[in-house]
Design brief:
About 10% of the residues have low confidence. The chain has about 350 residues and is α+β, with helices and mostly antiparallel strands. The chain has a domain of about 220 residues: Nucleotidyltransferase, domain 5 (2-Layer Sandwich), CATH 3.30.420.590. The longest helix has 21 residues. The chain contains 11 helices and 14 strands.
Length: about 350
């Protein structure tokens, strides 16, 4: 199939730690840390470690995810042996995956690598070949309303990187979480104004420039704002990263039990208590230097529908860095081909 015109995008490289804290990072760390407080007594019994932290889930990625990396791939051994847990984080809006991330926690190094997958990432599906919008990765969740298919696609794009569990939150949940932490201080560089009465729900954004504290409703509008960025979806991701830096600092000064309660009421996840407790205990004492953030290496189509195409070579180099694998000159055979 012929692909529309595209060009190399320099912003598809790893983002420097000093400028990166993706929005949902505080979910991964904050709720895991709080678990130690709320479940310690039960965990000591040793009989509930395999139970889901958020109650029963229809999907268990640990059991249902296929292995997508070929045994002959140079990534196979690292994916199998590395003492890591990879969490798929989805921010949902109107059944579309508006934010897609993989949070990869290295237990031994006490290090988190956060990979953002642009929502406009091109993913061809034969049954939707005639619909341009359905060839974007954010629509995969819309077609199923379950995380398994999205996890499979993300794993495939990341050359077979395993996905161990998922966490899903929608904008209503984000609004409540931000309000529970007293808002998020932000310096808005320029006025953000946009309206789309056809959106669901209708979207009306008018955030003035300058220093201010964003409440939950305004924070959601900030996160949804996209049309004013030259880089489109990539620019929006970078704005989310700036928001996250401030949100994380604000969260540390807020009432952790209160925030945790709100998170539990607004998140769907198959994370097990044992996994969450391990993350929590390992995460204690982590600082900015322990977190690295990436945007999926890509090339950007400069005309509508503005697909973001995965750059397989760049992705391989990113994974080599994350998993500390010696680089090779080829990436052939990284993914097991369908028979």
């Amino acid at each position: 199939m012929n692909q529309p015109q595209r060009s190399k995008a320099s912003y598809g490289q790893a983002v420097a730690p000093s400028s990166s804290k993706l929005f949902l990072k505080y979910f991964l760390i904050t709720f895991c840390l709080s678990i130690v407080v709320f479940t310690l007594a039960s965990v000591l019994v040793g009989k509930i470690m395999d139970r889901n932290l958020f109650g029963e889930s229809e999907i268990d990625l640990e059991e249902e995810m296929p292995v997508l990396v070929d045994k002959n791939s140079r990534f196979f051994e690292a994916f199998q042996d590395k003492n890591r847990v990879n969490v798929l984080l989805l921010g949902i809006n109107d059944n579309l995956a508006d934010t897609i991330m993989v949070a990869s926690f290295d237990y031994d190094a006490k290090h988190v690598d956060l990979i953002s997958i642009p929502r406009d990432t091109y993913y061809f599906r034969e049954e939707y070949a005639s619909s341009q919008s359905f060839l974007k990765i954010n629509s995969v969740y819309q077609n199923t309303e379950k995380p398994l298919e999205t996890a499979v696609v993300v794993s495939e794009i990341l050359l077979g990187m395993p996905i161990n569990c998922y966490a899903i939150i929608d904008y209503d949940g984000i609004e409540k979480i931000v309000d529970s932490m007293g808002g998020v201080p932000m310096n808005i560089p320029k006025r953000m104004k946009y309206s789309d009465p056809t959106d669901k729900p209708p979207l009306y954004i008018d955030i003035p420039a300058g220093e201010q504290v964003l409440d939950g409703e305004t924070a959601v509008k900030f996160l949804r704002y996209r049309k004013g960025y030259v880089e489109g979806d990539i620019g929006r991701i970078k704005a989310q990263q700036t928001f996250m830096r401030s949100a994380f600092k604000q969260m540390l000064g807020a009432e952790l039990p209160k925030i945790t309660k709100v998170i539990f009421n607004n998140v769907d996840s198959d994370i097990k208590i044992g996994t969450a407790t391990t993350i929590a205990t390992k995460a204690i004492g982590m600082g900015d230097e322990s977190i690295e953030t990436y945007i999926m290496p890509n090339t950007l189509q400069e005309v509508a529908p503005y697909y973001v195409y995965p750059d397989s070579q760049g992705i391989a180099e990113m994974i080599e860095e994350i998993y500390s694998i010696e680089p090779e000159t080829t990436t052939d055979g990284a993914i097991e081909e369908e028979s």
